[in-house]
Design brief:
This protein starts with 6 loop residues before the first helix and ends with a helix. It has two domains: 125 residues, no CATH class; 290 residues, Leucine-rich repeat, LRR (right-handed beta-alpha superhelix) (Alpha-Beta Horseshoe). By secondary structure, the chain is an alpha/beta fold. Strands 1-2-3-4-5-6-7-8-9-10-11-12-13 form a 13-stranded parallel beta sheet. 43% of the residues lie in helices and 10% in strands. Belongs to the PRAME family. LRRC14 subfamily. InterPro entries: LRR_dom_sf, LRRC14/PRAME.
Length: 519
């Protein structure tokens, strides 16, 4: 569908399409037209024009989310286009804004907000080359360091050092870009471009480095903290983190797998868990919590009852929850506010069917995203599932891969899903009848792809036909066998893979050494 453009926007496109003419003419352009020209340049991927617009930016703020979002002149939201040409031109233009002494405009810029950029799976930019969150972190840190070196060597215009621009960004740090980001953060006071970390993600980093860099980010400003893959944070480290650093604005917290393991709890550990719960209770803004792949059996109440603000997002997938945990969730004040819920990896029909449906009924008026992967939902449970989902009229995403459902059951379920007016994304399992007879669930990785692909394609076509006949072309249905798209993992999978291989090799060497000693 083509989005309508105003005459102003069409004129802006015509102006920037001739890069040489546009760059020469910027000095005669009214200040209030810069945002319009920026979006037109971004749409056409006119890197040189984007650079010059930013270098001569005449306004007090530069907010990428607002500039690229829906406007009266052009309704299409371009903030999910992480085009490498455009973003690199933006950031180098920002550096040159500081260095440019001959700009015809008085330097007013005080705040640059890069947090509105969204990393998505499908890119529509012509160059097809993206600049993800990790690469944006890398480039901004590099430019800040280069800017300082240049200013110290040149000893040029003293007014340059008076420029102070807060650059709001979602940082993504791994072992590979750690040193560069640390240097940029250490020199923040001296640099005209001041990195202000609003969200921080850490993958593949030692605990020592994580603790060091998190203090440099100014945690008092952090709204989102993600400690994800290959950061060996355990419960005692989490308590240490919360005892030594305050996060007054933190709204979203993601913890790595195996942060908690109640199976080896001592009395000291129980106290530690309570302390962590109390510390989270002090975070008055916290509304999103992800603790997947921890073992939390019987302890959900200890962690969540101290929270004073209701959670809007909760991910407790593969956390070995028992009936008491589910009962607490269903009866807690969080239940009426949950917009996103992930209970994957729990045998819901067997362990706590009525309690789960009670939880679902409480959050049904606000629920937008529900994930029930590997939950042993079978054909006999589909009618009950439909009954539970019927009130969820705001549901936008439903993921249920890994469940032993037949083709017929999926068709029945899809017929119902067409009735959910807000639904946009469905992730469904490969039908059980596409696998060899006797397959056991959950299916191991080795057997995951051993199904009748031709039969699956026929079933997928039939499911899409159900959507089509119900005029629901707006719903995307897919089967991501190895999980949903994760932009951060996609961008750094080579580094993460190398790190996991290294870790496996070290473990193997230790085992071999121990075995040789025993021999």
């Amino acid at each position: 569908r083509k989005t309508m453009k105003s005459l102003r926007f069409i004129s802006a496109e015509a102006f920037v399409s001739n890069a040489e003419f546009a760059r020469k003419s910027l000095g005669a352009v009214a200040h209030d037209l810069f945002p319009l020209l920026f979006k037109a340049s971004y749409l056409l991927e006119q890197g040189e024009v984007i650079h010059d617009l930013v270098e001569n930016w005449p306004l007090f703020d530069f907010n990428m989310g607002k500039l690229l979002g829906a406007t009266l002149d052009y309704q299409e939201d371009l903030s999910c286009r992480t085009c490498s040409v455009c973003l690199e031109s933006c950031l180098t233009g920002l550096r040159d804004y500081v260095l440019n002494q001959s700009s015809p405009y008085m330097k007013k810029l005080k705040v640059v907000d890069l947090t509105g950029i969204k990393d998505v799976e499908v890119q529509f930019c012509k160059c097809k080359k993206t600049m993800g969150r990790w690469a944006r972190t890398q480039l901004l840190s590099k430019l800040c360091s280069e800017l300082l070196v240049y200013l110290q060597r040149a000893q040029g215009n003293p007014g340059t050092f008076e420029i102070s621009i807060n650059v709001l960004i979602d940082l993504f740090v791994t072992e590979r870009n750690y040193e560069l980001v640390v240097q940029a953060l250490l020199k923040k006071c001296s640099c005209p471009l001041k990195i202000c970390c609003v969200a921080f993600r850490s993958d593949n980093l030692t605990l020592q480095k994580f603790f060091y860099i998190i203090k440099l980010t100014d945690p008092s400003l952090l709204r989102k903290l993600e400690i994800v893959h290959n950061v060996h944070l355990e419960m005692e480290h989490l308590e240490m983190l919360f005892n030594s650093i305050h996060f007054p604005l933190l709204m979203s917290l993601t913890l790595p797998a195996r942060t908690f393991n109640v199976r080896r709890f001592t009395a000291t550990d129980e106290q530690m868990l309570s302390n962590i719960g109390e510390k989270m209770g002090e975070m008055s803004q916290l509304t999103e919590l992800s603790m997947s792949f921890s073992i939390l059996t019987g302890r959900i109440q200890n962690l969540l009852s101290p929270l004073k603000t209701p959670l809007k997002m909760l991910d407790v997938s593969n956390c070995s929850l028992n009936h008491a945990d589910m009962a607490f969730l269903a009866n807690s004040f969080h239940a009426n506010h949950l917009e996103a819920l992930d209970l994957s990896g729990h045998d819901i029909p067997e362990l706590y069917p009525s309690t789960f449906f009670k939880l679902l009924s409480h959050c049904s008026s606000v629920l937008r995203s529900l994930t029930l992967e590997d939950c042993n939902i079978q054909d006999t449970h589909v009618n009950m599932l439909i009954l539970g989902l019927s009130p969820c009229q705001k549901l936008q995403e439903f993921r249920f891969i890994g469940n032993p459902l037949s083709s017929q059951a999926l068709k029945h379920l899809f017929t119902f899903l067409c009735e959910l007016p807000m639904l946009k994304n469905v992730e469904f399992p490969v039908p059980k009848d596409c696998y060899p007879i006797g397959i056991t669930y959950p299916i191991d990785d080795a057997s995951l792809c051993r199904f009748d692909h031709q039969k699956y394609e026929r079933v997928a076509e039939e499911l899409n036909l159900i959507l089509l006949q119900a005029n629901r072309e707006d719903v995307k249905a897919s089967t991501p066998l190895f999980g949903s798209y994760d932009a951060a993992v996609q961008e750094t999978n080579n580094e993460l893979g190398a790190s996991l291989i290294k870790s496996f090799k070290e473990t193997l060497e230790k085992f071999t050494t121990s075995f040789n000693k025993m021999s």
